[in-house]
Amino acid sequence: xxxxxxxxxxxxxxxxxxxxxxxxxxxxxxxxxxxxxxxxxxxxxxxxxxxxxxxxxxxxxxx
Length: 63
Description:
Elements lengths: L3 H13 L3 H8 L3 H8 L6 H17 L2
């Protein structure tokens, strides 16, 4: 089940124009792990913090 925060991350990635695979690499995660997190199958507070941090940096750099 997709969480609200993961749905927002997916939407933001589409707006920025970055693939999930590229985003996973920027976060230091494998693409399969990122997929599991964004689908709500795996979740840790550390992963959530990392994802939000990297996403915030991407948004600032693309502004």
